[in-house]
Design a protein that fits this description.
Length: 220
């Protein structure tokens, strides 16, 4: 079970806009058009990649009972997040990232393994899959900084990431002045918004924090 505070950090990440220009390329996006206002956009069904609030950094202390600066052992940050999406029988989204780490005591070579999670979230608040991995950081003797690399991936059924045909037609239907619904924005209608949310997937990555580590990130 994810602790309640950690769940808030994980699921509280800002939602990626449901309508966005295609980032995956290859013409895979669903064309969404509102000719009445001259808006044309490609809705990309690929899962977006992001880092939830408070999970992009981790601090280890030499004494678990202390959290003051003199007790800081390792500080690491997740950065340079990159994403790729490939199309096959399923959509495959991959996130790769770097971890920049710094240590206080530079004596001797040292290997540090930091756990990270990758989570697939649907509709902004439903966790459909989660995995935990480890990124390895190797410090050479006398070195205070080192870098590690890691990646995570997720498969999503294309049918689940696609908008229903009737919803696409409602969004893209040409509306003329004088039509009964000419002034109604279809994206504001509850069933359309719900369909967009159901088809929206995110691949979120971050450090797998303890409750104490998460609270430390929130407080600082």
């Amino acid at each position: 079970m994810i602790a309640s505070a950690r769940r808030m950090a994980l699921l509280g990440a800002p939602l990626v806009a449901a309508l966005a220009l295609s980032a995956c390329g290859g013409g895979r996006g669903e064309l969404v058009v509102d000719e009445a206002v001259g808006v044309k956009a490609l809705r990309d069904p690929c899962p977006r990649v992001g880092v939830p609030d408070y999970t992009g950094d981790v601090t280890l202390f030499s004494d678990p009972a202390r959290t003051d600066s003199a007790a800081v052992d390792i500080v690491a940050s997740l950065t340079n997040v990159r994403s790729q999406c490939s199309d096959g029988q399923k959509l495959y989204s991959q996130a790769s990232f770097d971890v920049l780490a710094r240590r206080s005591d530079t004596r001797g070579a040292r290997r540090v393994e930091l756990p990270y999670f990758s989570t697939v979230v649907r509709g902004g608040n439903v966790v459909v899959a989660k995995r935990v991995g480890k990124v390895v950081i190797d410090f050479a003797d006398g070195q205070d900084r080192a870098t590690g690399k890691a990646q995570a991936g997720a498969y999503v059924e294309k049918a689940e990431a696609a908008l229903p045909e009737d919803i696409v037609k409602r969004i893209s239907r040409k509306r003329r002045a004088g039509d009964e619904d000419a002034a109604v924005d279809p994206l504001s209608q509850p069933d359309v918004k719900a369909a967009l949310a159901r088809a929206n997937f995110e691949l979120l990555v971050g450090f797998q924090l303890t409750d104490a580590q998460l609270q430390y990130n929130v407080r600082r």
